[in-house]
Amino acid sequence: MKLNTEELIAELIEQTRININKVEKFRELSESELNHKGNIEKWSVLECIEHLNLYGVFYNPEIRKSIEKSISKPSETFKSGIIGNYFVKTMLPKKKLNKMKTSKDKNPLGSSLNINVIDRFLSQQKEFLELIKKSKNVNLTKTKTAISISKLIEMRLGDTFRFIVAHNKRHITQAENVLKQPAGNKV
User: Residue 16 burial by CB count (10 A; 0-12/13-18/19+): exposed, middle or buried?
Assistant: First the structure.
């Protein structure tokens, strides 16, 4: 799949701003509401956002390093890779979110969390926006990043951005859905 680089970057920036705005609205909720769960085995709003923070800790520095060491010139088009496009498609939210297993080190279930989780996410996303803007100076197809599940597998920078934005959108949607659920401790 080929995409116009300028349009892709604009779309990534726009969706990231939408994600930021949605999470900023969570700041208006009480800590009790943010820790609410419809089910003890599911994530609260804060656990959804903390999950994203755990990914941000890996990806923001990885993206920065890739951009800084890249010697490729920008291109008018971005060509998505097979692996990258697959990961992006699996992350996109659907009408009914498909269940996915998360790695143990990225699973915040049962963590003691507070409003700082939201502040950390917003800070990471502002940094992420700057990285998207900096990427205008490199080739999004030729510049590669490691992925969180294996440093041996690399993904094209454009696909990494697309994956992170889709992953964020997915879990922000999940957090919004948590707020619609009645309280309960069903097992």
Answer: buried
| Region 2-179: CATH code | 1.20.120
Domain locations along the chain: 2-179
The structure's pTM equals: 0.90
Report how far residue 16's alpha carbon sits from residue 99's, in angstroms, rounded to the nearest whole number: 23
Residues linked to residue 155 through DSSP beta bridges, in sequence order: 145
Quick check: 138 and 157 in contact, CB under 8 A? yes
Distance, C-alpha 100 to centroid of its chain: 15
Predicted confidence (pLDDT) per residue in 167-186, tens digit? 999 999 999 999 987 765 44
Residue type, 112: S
CA angle 72, 67, 141 (to 5 degrees): 50
C-alpha to C-alpha distances, 133 to 22, 33, 51, 104, 158, nearest whole angstrom:
21, 34, 24, 32, 12
Residue type, 15: Q
Compute CA 77 distance to the chain's CA centroid, rounded to the nearest angstrom. 23
Q: Is the Cβ–Cβ distance between 55 and 148 less than 8 Å?
A: yes
